[in-house]
Write a structure and sequence with these properties.
This protein starts with a helix and ends with a strand. It has helices spanning 4-31, 50-62, 82-103, 112-127, 142-159, 166-172, 182-200, 226-257, 278-282, 284-306, 325-356, 363-389, 395-401, 413-434, 436-440, 445-460, 474-507, 513-531, 547-559, 566-577, 587-611, 614-620, 624-653, 662-697, 699-702, 705-708, 711-743; strands at 38-41, 46-49, 70-71, 74-75, 131-132, 137-140, 657-659, 747-750. The chain is globular and about 90 Å long. Helices cover 68% and strands 3% of the residues. The strands form 3 sheets. It has a 4-stranded mixed beta sheet with strand order 2-1-6-5. It has a two-stranded antiparallel sheet with strand order 3-4. Strands 7-8 form a two-stranded antiparallel ribbon. A hairpin with a 2-residue loop joins strand 3 and strand 4 (74-75). Helix 1 runs parallel beside helix 18, helix 2 packs across helix 7 (182-200) and helix 14 packs antiparallel against helix 16. By secondary structure, the protein is mainly α.
Length: 753
């Protein structure tokens, strides 16, 4: 089969997509919200300096950053979005001051006409850009200077120990004296003010703010721009057009080329005759660690969820003294990435010698060495995050060894570099093991080439996580962070896993090499066509140019187009497990692949597109609707995939014995039912209520303690315990089954040859 067209298409997608991504990245360096040399009042009083703002950003990072509330909508959901909160508090302070001065009343007591007049005045006050590029100075009026001072006192009291704010700290899950050093407190306040200034100040020569009018705040007329509405509508049309085009292509290709599956399957399991090499056996301990990290992550998730109703305790126990919410959530999110990535990396190390049939010299040593490096990274990174959040490190030490503050890339820079080196070591082990197959297996060369390309992308696309520095502008850090979170986790790991699954099925003789190659190449082309530029849908409101909205809306819609074929993928996997009697031994790994297809459609597709259009995300960013997508896509797709790959490898490592699958069957259904109930009974209802509150009153209210402490919201939070408990029991059952493979109780008699 000639794959030339598909390879050319893939090359074009790479070149065009990364050119657009790079172009807007270059523009961002020139259009990002400026950090002023100083902020002064009209009377000459200096309020903040660049040094304070940059130091404040480091303080924010050290205390957990995006794991404690959010900035520009990115981060945790219990505490407020600090920009929406600051903006509303400062606006209300100014409006009340004017109302008392002009009408001798508080603002709420005014009639509609009086309120409208003051709001128009406030809009001009806050949205006018007074940044002087020549001097690097932002000038604020006397009234705004007083409002900044009053709001600053609130935040200083909140992050220290003001007894009047004890209940608010409880609602936000913020311990007393989160920041103990007064100098750090003042610096933190300056950073929150600056990031809020970018959210209410118009870009030079424009009528939208640096954050494209996010968050919505009616008091200053922060509302969706025309671009958001137009490009959202265009994204809906393109989604429908893309689905129609892909369905037509798929139908015409199938009718033209006929059935590509195998008419005859092997009479016995091909893996029964596979010699398990020492390096393949050495991957077993990776999967033990995967199981351990996963069960820890599940426990941390339960604690983090509980903090939403008991902010600094766990059923009366003052857990926050030792494990505050920001620590728990940091570990929870980071371990999610680490155990899933470890499962996939171990799968690559297992399958490489199986493909080539050759064990390179010292391969087992390399696999063991990499394993211990990963252990050091996990333990060191988690310990560093704890010391940082507990304010036991200098800001420089925190950046390098503690907490960088950015969700999913929280670990200190030293651990990031260490992990990058480890990923390149993994790539080296992969290449040396698989390279002989290029000479010996000619019919698989295209599939092997794609496998090596995907493997190379994994370490290469983790490098963007090193592209920001300790004092980098927040907009720049966010741009590069999403290269890691979207392109690395959601992009090339998915390509890698798709290729690995194809290799597993071809190795079992359940899929033709030609069929697998064309299918994987085509899937990669259409997925990356929308997926690479689709990175922009995370960056609508992160200080980026307006053009990001157009490309983000368009291509994030196209990301959903390949999901129209999910039903075919699921059906093909179902037929594989019933293809031949011996294939039933792989029933449960394949079932997890079927679950991946389901959650890909629901979690990544439906819930993903639910929040991806600019007009939707404008009101939903940072609400529990984001958590719905995060749980159903990150675990539902990538977590289920990691478990499926792990079970496939463990099946190969125990191929001579039958599995006792009772615990595995229970685990599969408990995990999937638990995840569905977690979303349907809790996260989604809360997210929808927050969305309505955001549309009606503003983002500040949807994320406020006033809203989230309402009785109905707490009832939905408590309902989450149903899904969480079922999910946790399923997780324990799976870990129990994996432990049984070591002890032998999960195994029975030998399989017949």
């Amino acid at each position: 089969m000639n794959y030339r067209r598909l390879w050319i298409s893939l090359a074009i997608v790479f070149i065009v997509s990364f050119s657009i991504l790079g172009y807007f990245g270059g523009r961002l360096y020139h259009t990002k919200p400026p950090i002023p040399a100083k902020v002064v009042a009209t009377d000459g009083t200096v309020l903040f300096t660049r040094h304070q703002i940059e130091t404040g950003q480091n303080v924010w990072q050290s205390m957990g950053g995006q794991e404690l509330g959010s900035i520009w909508g990115h981060g945790a959901y219990v505490a407020p979005d600090w920009n929406a909160d600051w903006l509303h508090r400062e606006s209300m302070w100014i409006l009340n001051a004017w109302a008392k001065s002009d009408y001798k009343k508080v603002y709420k007591a005014l009639d509609d006409e009086q309120k409208a007049a003051l709001q128009a005045r406030l809009k001009k006050e806050l949205r006018t850009n007074t940044y002087d590029k020549k001097t690097g100075t932002i000038t604020v009026s006397p009234i705004e200077a007083k409002a900044i001072s009053a709001t600053s006192k609130h935040y200083i009291g909140l992050f220290s120990d003001d007894p009047k704010l004890d209940q608010l700290r409880e609602d936000y899950a913020i311990p007393k004296n989160t920041i103990k050093d007064p100098e750090r407190l003042n610096a933190l306040v300056s950073f929150i003010w600056w990031s809020t200034w970018a959210a209410h100040t118009d870009r030079p020569g424009d009528i939208v703010t640096y954050t494209n009018n996010w968050p919505n705040e009616p008091l200053i007329d922060n509302k969706p721009s025309g671009e958001m509405l137009v490009w959202s509508v265009i994204s809906f049309v393109l989604l429908l057009a893309g689905i129609g085009a892909l369905a037509w292509y798929y139908a015409s290709t199938n009718s033209r080329e006929g059935h590509h599956g195998l008419e005859k399957f092997p009479k016995k399991d091909p893996l029964l005759g596979l010699a398990t090499t020492p390096s393949m056996k050495a991957t077993t301990k990776y999967f033990w660690v995967v199981a351990l990290l996963w069960i820890i992550q599940v426990g941390l998730g339960a604690i983090a969820g509980h903090y939403q109703v008991e902010g600094n305790g766990f059923y009366g126990f003052p857990l926050a003294k030792w494990l505050p919410y920001s620590v728990v959530r940091s570990w929870h999110t980071q371990l999610g990435i680490l155990w899933i990535a470890t499962a996939w990396l171990a799968t690559g190390l297992y399958i490489s010698p199986a493909i080539s049939g050759r064990e390179p010299k010292f391969q087992r040593f390399g696999v063991n060495f990499l394993f211990f490096c990963l252990l050091i990274i996990v333990v060191g990174a988690m310990a560093g995050e704890w010391f940082s959040i507990m304010q036991k490190q200098s800001l420089k030490t925190s950046f390098w060894f503690g907490h960088q503050g950015y969700e999913y890339t929280d670990i200190g820079r030293f651990w990031q570099i260490f992990l990058t080196i480890g990923l390149f070591l993994w790539l080296f082990l992969m290449i040396r093991a698989i390279w002989p197959a290029f000479k010996n297996i000619k019919e698989s060369r295209n599939l092997l080439a794609l496998f090596l390309l995907a493997s190379t992308a994994i370490p290469v696309f983790y490098i963007p996580g090193l592209m920001w520095g300790q004092h980098s502008n927040l907009a720049i850090a966010e741009y590069w962070r999403w290269w890691v979170v979207h392109l690395w986790v959601e992009g090339f790991f998915e390509v890698f896993s798709t290729v690995v699954i194809a290799f597993l099925f071809t190795r079992l003789g359940l899929l033709k090499v030609a069929t697998a190659t064309s299918s994987v190449l085509f899937s990669t082309v259409i997925f990356l066509f929308g997926g690479i530029i689709g990175t922009f849908h995370h960056l609508y409101f992160s200080g980026t140019p307006v053009g990001v909205i157009a490309f983000g809306a368009t291509f994030s819609a196209l990301e959903c187009v390949p999901l129209v074929l999910i039903g075919f993928e699921a059906y093909e996997n179902i037929t594989k497990k019933h293809a031949t009697p011996w294939a039933s031994a792989y029933q449960w790994p394949i079932n997890f692949f079927i679950a991946v297809a389901f959650w890909n459609l629901v979690g990544a597709g439906l819930f993903g597109f639910f929040i991806n259009p600019p007009i939707a995300l404008y009101y939903m960013q940072g609400l529990n609707t984001t958590a719905v997508h995060a749980h159903t896509a990150l675990f539902g797709v990538y977590g289920m995939l990691g478990i499926g790959l792990m079970l496939f490898c463990l099946r190969g490592l125990t191929v001579q014995r039958e599995w006792k699958t009772g615990a595995l069957k229970f685990s599969f259904w408990a995990i999937n039912i638990g995840l569905a109930l977690m979303v349907l009974l809790s996260l989604l209802p809360i997210g929808l209520m927050q969305t309505w509150a955001s549309v009606q009153h503003g983002m500040w209210y949807a994320r406020s303690a006033e809203f989230l402490s309402r009785g109905i919201v707490h009832r939905f939070v408590w309902l989450r315990i149903i899904g969480d408990s079922i999910f946790a029991i399923g997780a324990i059952a799976l870990v129990w089954f994996i432990a049984g493979l070591k002890t032998g109780w999960s195994l029975s008699k030998k399989r017949s040859l």
